[in-house]
Amino acid sequence: MTHTPIPVTLLTGFLGAGKTTLLNHLLAEAGERIVVIENEFGPVSIDSELLIRERDELVEMTNGCLCCTIRGDLSRHLHSLYQRRRDGELAFTRLVIETTGLADPTPIAQTFFSDDTLAEAYALDGVLAVVDAVHGEQQLDGHLVARKQAGFADRLLISKTDLVDEASLEHLGARLAAINSQAGQHRLVQGRIAPALAFGVRGFHLDENLLRPATGERNLSFRPAATRSFADDIAALHLAHDGPLDLARISAFMNRLVEQHAEQLLRYKGVLAIAGEPRRLVFQGVHRITGFDYGREWQDDETPRCDIVLIGQQLPADAIRAEFAACLA
After folding, report:
1. pLDDT above 60 (res 170)
2. Residue 40: HSE in the Cβ half-sphere, 13 Å Cα cutoff
3. Residue 55's Cα: distance from chain center in Å?
4. How far apart are the first and last CA of the chain?
5. For 91-131, how does the pLDDT look when each residue is reduced to its tens digit (9 = 90+)?
6. Structure confidence at residue 54 (pLDDT)
7. Domains along the chain with CATH numbers
C-alpha cells in the first residue's frame, strides 16, 4: 500500500502576534483531525472551550483534534506520534506545530529533512508567519528572529489589521515584501483565516510553480520586492536570465553559494532552463539542505528562462550577481 506522508504546517510569529487566536479559528473550521504540537514551555494555550480531556501529553479537543505541548526533543515526539498513528492508537490527518514567539523556524523545518524516517513519514506543507500590524515594524527593527520568521515564511499573515490605518499596512506590507518577495500576504481580522489559505500551500514541493502563487488563490497579495531599501539585514535577492544556463557552471555556482553562505541563507529556490536539456530543473534549499528534480519540458510557446530567489541575511548581493553572470551559457 502506498504511504501518503502526513502534511505539516509550521505556524510561527513573534510574541503576541496572534498565533494562538489564528490556530483556534483553524481548529474550529478545519473539518479534519489535526494534531497540534505547541513548542512552548508552559500550559496549553488552545481555547479551553475546545478541550475535553488530557491524557499523557496529548489534549483531545471537542472536534476530534489533538494537542500536545513539547517540553523535550521534537524529533522524538514526531517519531512517537507517527508510530502511534501506524499502530491505530491515534487517528489524525494533519500536523500543526505552533512555535514559541522567540523561535527561529529554520531548525524546526530542518528536522523534517535531516531524518530519513521523518522525511518519509511527514511532508512539510508550508510555513505561516503571523505578523502584528500594530507592533510589527518595531519588532522587525529590534529582533533578528522576527526578521527570520518573515524571511522563512511561505505565507505572511498580518494580524490586528483593524487597529491600524491603511498607510501603516501598506508600509508594513512593502517592508515584508523586501524581506520575502515569495510569500503571499494575507490580512487577518480577529485572527480569522480560511483553512484553504493555511493548508495545501505546497511550499516545499519541487514543481514549476515554486516561484509563483498557485492559480486561483484568493485573498493573497503577492508583491514584487520593494525598490526602496528598508535597511533590514534579511532580504530577497532575485537572479534572472532569459535563456538556458550551462549545468556545470550553475552547479558550481550553487555549490560555492551554499559553501560560503549556508548559514546566511534562510531559503533559496529556483526554476532553471539548462542548455541541451528539454526539461526545467527545479530546486530549493534550507541552509545546507538542498533538493532538486527535473520538471516538465519547455513548450514551443514558452521562452526558457532561469529564476533564482535567495532569502538570506546580509548576503553580498553584488558579488553574487557577478558570479551568476559568469554562469550564462
Report:
1. yes
2. 23
3. 31
4. 45
5. 889 999 888 888 888 888 888 988 899 999 999 999 999 99
6. 39
7. 6-211 (3.40.50.300), 234-325 (3.30.1220.10)
pLDDT of residue 223: 52
Q: Which whole number is the average pLDDT over 66-88?
A: 77
How would you class 45 by CB atoms within 10 Å of its CB: exposed for 0-12, middle for 13-18, buried for 19 or more? middle
Q: What gap in Å lies between CA 249 and CA 168, rounded to an integer?
A: 44
Cα(82)–Cα(122) distance, integer angstroms: 9
In three-state secondary structure terms, 284 is strand
Phi, psi of 298 (to 5 degrees): -70, 135
The per-residue pLDDT for 275 is: 93
On the CB side of 271, CA atoms within 13 Å amount to 18
Tell me the whole-structure pTM to 2 decimals: 0.83
Q: Which three cell numbers stand for residue 6?
A: 502526513
How many residues appear in the chain?
Answer: 329
| Residue owning grid cell 503577492 | 222
For β-strands 34-39 and 94-99, DSSP reports them as parallel
Calpha distance 51→64 (Å, rounded): 10
For residues 218, 223, 149, 216, the Cα torsion angle rounded to the nearest 10 degrees is 20
The grid cell for 87 is 499502530
The residues with which 265 forms a beta bridge, in sequence order, are 312
CA dist., res. 59 & res. 79, Å (int): 18
**Residues in CB range of 93: below 8 A, 6 or more apart:** 6, 7, 32, 33, 34
Task: Give pLDDT, residue 55.
Answer: 44
Higher-confidence residue of 71 and 154: namely: 154
